Automatic annotation (TrEMBL):
UniProtKB keywords: Dioxygenase, Oxidoreductase
Protein origin, superkingdom: Bacteria
Spans traversing the lipid bilayer: none
Species: Blastococcus colisei
Name of the protein described by the UniProt record: Benzoyl-CoA 2,3-dioxygenase component B
Length: 493
């Protein structure tokens, strides 16, 4: 597919896109707030969101990407459907058209699980579930601007224009995902929703007095290896959380998350290929010099890549919450939040008589206990996530195998470095060995990035802004974006 080159005008999006083949809902870019929800038909809601819009722009200017650019080769949604939902063109970042996009409505959609299974999906918020639904939307919404804040300085050390463009694509889409949640809060939750929408811009990642809600979104993204691990592991958690909300009996939330999942796929692609290209370059240097100690050759040692993997995987595991939860049982029974791929499950979708074994540590040993399935849905979702994560590690290890190396990366034990759930308060190594606090403190730098590790990685983070130029610690991609050459000037200053 080719893209028509043109001079961008006021952030317009031009160029070719795939012809839609599935049901679509066109997005109206003539509106001040682009949308496919007929915002103009609700003047009160439109005015409220137009009042929130300048605050969002101020947030983007203050806490969005810190490096100034002229324009960036970005993808923008043009229609909602199975295909044909994106255009590529050069867009000034500050003129990107954030908006509100929901997947096409299915008028026959039913609630597919819980005690209200078989009822028509809800188009309004059931009064008895108002507080729980608002909380689910706020927690999801809080993660979206948080990652932009965590990544705001990365453009200053981009390993290539290709990678900088991918960073900015992730950033603008996270900004749009914030808009998605803010729309739901404004449209369906009245004064409480409007107040929550204000707070989404007042909390900031890592802020001492007003941090983001979830711990992983207050961690500092120190370098590009951290970014790639974040987009692989933590954005993958987002995929699974959105997947459960896509099943919700509250239809506007389900349709919102269904569209967000389309964009989330690119974020995980950035992580998957970013780590893969880092491992590829590391393998090349290891093979060339016969050692893992490749700092002096401008590469990141495989042992350090493993430590970064250990850290991001473990903090992302905490995002799933405790293995057992009465809240998640209530969400499921009420029809608010389903399971991953709910309709593909071969059970009664109510789960009242089912059980599940959950992991625990008892008397200093790994063990399990049997609990009602309804209370173990966080673990059910986490298990799906772990299996998915393992696929990427296999892909990265293929690079090592192709280079003729025996070393391999691996996912650490599920109990490693956990702050939430049944493993919190225990010290467990990446291989699953339970150790005492003194042993942990003595060996922790063998498992997690030390201050020295991060400092040495930071020394490699030197910007490469020339077209087709790549940092020495990462291999170039095999193909460019949207069939453009790898050497294309994806970002202009």
């Amino acid at each position: 597919m080719t893209t028509t080159e043109s001079t961008p005008q006021s952030g317009t999006v031009t160029g070719e896109a795939p012809t839609p083949t599935g049901p679509t809902s066109k997005i109206d870019y003539s509106e001040k707030i682009p949308n496919n929800v007929n915002l103009a038909g609700d003047r009160k809601l439109q005015r409220a969101l137009e009042g929130w819009q300048p605050k969002f722009i101020d947030w983007w200017k203050n806490l969005g990407p810190s490096i100034p650019t002229h324009d960036v080769y970005l993808r923008t949604a043009i229609a909602v459907g199975r295909d044909g939902w994106a255009h590529f063109d050069r867009v000034p970042m500050e003129e990107y058209r954030w908006g509100i996009f929901l997947a096409e409505q299915d008028p026959d959609r039913k609630v597919n699980f819980g005690d209200r299974k078989g009822e028509p999906a809800w188009q309004e918020v059931p009064g008895e579930h108002r507080s729980d639904l608002r909380r689910l939307i706020v927690v999801q919404g809080d993660t979206e601007p948080a990652s932009v804040e965590q990544q705001r300085h990365l453009g200053m050390t981009a390993p290539s224009l290709y990678d900088m463009r991918n960073l900015f694509q992730v950033n603008v889409e996270e900004g749009r995902h914030l808009w998605a949640m803010v729309y739901l809060l404004h449209a369906y939750f009245g004064k409480d929703g409007r107040e929550e929408a204000e707070q989404l811009l007042k909390r900031n990642s890592g802020d001492f007095d007003s941090p983001r809600i979830l711990g992983a979104f207050n961690e500092e993204t120190t370098d590009w290896l951290s970014f790639f691990m974040f987009t692989y592991f933590t954005d993958r958690d987002g995929k699974y959380q959105l997947g459960t909300l896509k099943e919700s009996g509250f239809d506007p939330l389900a349709r919102t998350c269904e569209f967000m999942l389309k964009e989330e796929a690119h974020h995980m692609f950035v992580g998957t290929t970013g780590v893969q290209r880092t491992v590829q370059r590391t393998a090349e240097l290891m093979k060339e010099h016969g050692t893992d100690d490749i700092w002096k050759y401008g590469g990141i040692p495989l042992s350090v890549i493993q430590k970064y993997l250990n850290f991001q995987f473990s903090v992302s595991m905490d995002l799933f919450g405790s293995e057992t939860s009465s809240n998640v049982a209530a969400y499921y029974t009420s029809g608010l939040k389903g399971r991953w791929m709910e309709t593909r499950r071969k059970d009664d979708h109510q789960l009242h008589d089912l059980t599940m074994d959950v992991p625990v540590i008892e008397n200093g040993r790994m063990s399990t206990k049997t609990v009602p399935m309804l209370t173990a849905l966080n673990l059910d979702l986490r298990n799906e996530y772990v299996a998915d994560c393992a696929n990427g590690v296999k892909r990265w290890n293929q690079e090592l195998e192709d280079a003729g190396l025996e070393e391999r990366l691996f996912l650490p034990h599920q109990a490693f470095n956990r702050k939430v759930g049944s493993f919190a308060g225990h010290h467990v190594t990446p291989t699953g060995e339970i150790v005492d606090e003194a042993t942990w403190e003595r060996t922790v730098d063998d498992y997690l990035p030390s201050r020295d590790d991060r400092a040495q990685v930071a020394e490699l983070m030197v910007p490469h802004y020339d077209t087709g130029d790549f940092a020495g610690w990462i291999a170039p991609p095999s193909v460019g974006i949207n069939s453009m050459p790898v050497e294309y000037d994806y970002v202009r200053f």
